[in-house]
Amino acid sequence: MMKITTMAIFLSIFSFAQKNYSINGFVKDKDTGELISGAIITVKEKPEISIETNEYGFYSVSLPENDYTIIITHGKHKNSSQEVHLDSSKKIDWSLAKDDETLIQEVIINDPKKNKMVSFRNKSGAEVVDIQGVKKLPVLLGERDIIKTLQYLPGIVAKEGSTGLSVRGGNTDQNLILLDEAPILNNSHLMGLFSTFNSDVLKDVTLYKGNMPSQYGGRLSSIIDVKMKDGNNQQFTTTGGISTVSGRLSVEGPIVKGKSSFIISARRSFLDLFGGGSNGDDSNNESSDTSSPMKLYFYDLNAKVNYQINKNNTIYLSGYMGRDVINVDDFRYNWGNKIGSLSWNSVVSDKLFSKTSLVYSNYDYRMKLDGKMDLQFDLNPNVRNLILKQDFTHFISPKHSLKYGFQISNYYFDTPNLSESIESPFLKTARTMWENAVYINDDYKITDKFSVNYGLRFSSYNSKSKGIEKFQETDKINVYVEPRIMLNYNFNSNNSINASYIRNTQGIQTLSPNTGIQLNDLWINLAKPQISDQLNLGYVKKLKKGYEVSADIYYRKMSNIIDYKDGLDVNSALFEDNFQENLLHNGIGRAYGLEILAKKTTGKFTGWLSYSLSKSERKIDGINNGEWYNATNDKTHNLSLVGSYEFTPRWTFSGAFVYSTGNAVTYPVAKYDLDGQTMLEYGARNSSRMPAYHRLDLSVSHEFKNAGRFKKTLIIGAYNVYGRANPYTIDFKTDENNPSIIRAKQTVLFRFVPSIGLDFKF
User: Fold this and answer.
1) CATH number of the domain enclosing 451
2) Which of 133, 61, 144 lies closest to 99 in space, CA to CA?
3) Which CATH number does the domain housing residue 15 bear?
């Protein structure tokens, strides 16, 4: 750490020798004091200069001595400018007024150029989602959900009743989901109906699926970087809502006005109240056997505080805790996350920004079956992750900025309190893994039209356990070099092309079931991390009146892929002595496709169309005779149509239509009799398809006339309007009355689901 800090200071001192002076500072929201990331700083006298504030609103630009006009722009705020005579380095902070300050004494002025629904913008190959715009989209059961919104983007597919995302043909566990730097290992509530993220406390969400900057790593498919609000440091506000199944309440305000603030939010479902349940068994260490016949609920809590020590140093402390509880007769199931992060942000010099973070993440679940049934078990897997991160942002020049740092991460995998009847060595053995990394990333604007973002990440993995060498290599450190580069060329202000290459590694994986029902996944660490190499070529065309079209083609190859042997029932095999022998290692995978996104971001009507044509396959000796087979998440076609129309300033109608190819599954192809019983013979792995999936969602929202500071909005919606019977699972069983007949049983989750919700703020 001392070496990296010394290098950072040396580079900063070296940059001063260029006889330029710097202007640096923070960009904040005028009303709330929230730091604004992604604000653009330009210089009127030097139009070729354009820099962007980092994730904590800090910027730095170096210029020769002269008179300048500095201009700050941001999509959700009014432009601001200031004339500066630069004869020495200066610190200038900015407070930007929101773009919606057209509300004057209950008179709403409708400016069609400012009625944005959900805006996406490229940022080093990323998609940035507007949290406010999400509120206009139709949702399931009246609860806004940022993860559900991401499912409407090209290259992303999901299964109904799940918040797990498959990005560009990857598995759902190949996405790194971060909440204020802390990884979330399970992001679902109510068996996947909702995600863990309460939109009321979120500031922004950034999705990387093409080119991940070097500061991110540890997953093959994508990074979903979620940031919580810092809290309003100017005044106290309360936000909340009640919907069909849950209620939520958030409070934020200053601790010391203009210097420190807090935000705290709580959310809980109340299905159990309608079902007659009580608070009951929501603890992972609960030992009481008393329970009501049926319980199904979740709760979560978000909190964050910050304190500005001085003009150059600020401390942030944030946390999250959530849990789901399912009790049905003798079956009990609960899972939850606990995370915390402590960050120290420091302006080391005029050109150097430092962020030091200590992060804790814990995920556990408990599955228990007892009572009068013959089968009894108590399964309680747990994953703990402790991370130390040091990140530097170095603004070398207006055209050249570096990011570099390191990460030290420790995983601990354990399954405590196992039932005595469980003899599986895998479940009874605690495992640890160190995942460390050093990185450097350079963002360089070579000319006015040509820029490059490139970097290196050096990752190391070291796993230890007590004798399960097939999963881990004891005391052996594996080091991997992960290069990445993104080239961008702007033909003009309306046409651009980009090309990128990235290599990623991943040292952990879930054991997801291929048959039967298992609500959550068991995480394991791998002897050889998975490796992914991805190429991407993209084109963006901006049109008039807020229209924009983009297209991407990509190709990914993966290695060290693990899958199960044919015919294995994971839920049963997990408890056997030789479970690890049922996993096949050293497989390879490939995924490729075309993604198209057409959007309209301004005017009364806003929305987008996304379409993906893709293929995802795996190849492992011992499966499908060593030939390529479809990945479980392979979907040839995936289409989303999302739109919102502002009928009046207070009435907004929105809708979303989705269509996708059915999931790849393995169906029986023949039957035969054995000792009087009808047996099924299954076809090649994932060689069949479930029926195509499609549905239409609609909603309407009404903003009531404000009563002072009190604002309220009514949202009425319907999920799956025309009642499409989309199959969740299809099982094949013999007919009880005629064993020679095989019947297919289809399980459908949601045919038609109406919802109503009321949001408020004061």
Assistant:
1) 2.40.170.20
2) 133
3) 2.60.40.1120
426: enclosing H helix or E strand? helix 425-428
Q: What share of the chain is helix, strand, coil (3-state, %, to 5)?
A: 10, 60, 35
pLDDT of residue 530 exceeding 90: yes
Q: In terms of residues, how long is the chain?
A: 762
Q: What is the CA radius of gyration of the chain?
A: 27
Residue 38 belongs to what domain range? 2-101
**pLDDT confidence band for 466 (50 / 70 / 90):** low
Query: Is pLDDT larger for residue 732 or for residue 540?
Result: 540
222 shares its domain with 74: no
User: Is the separation of the CB atoms in 602 and 595 below 8 Å?
Assistant: no
Are 395 and 438 members of one domain? yes
pLDDT tens digits, one per residue of 682-692: 888 888 899 99
Whether the CB-CB separation of 668 and 731 falls below 8 Å is answered with no
Q: Are 27 and 42 in contact (CB under 8 A)?
A: no
Q: Quick one: CA dihedral 168, 172, 176, 179, positive or negative? A: positive
Spatial CA neighbour of 644 closest among 611, 678, 603: 603
Cβ neighbors of 379 (< 8 A, separation 6 or more) are: 366, 367, 368, 415, 418, 419, 422, 427
Indicate the number of domains in the chain.
Answer: 2
Residue 625: helix, strand or coil by DSSP? helix
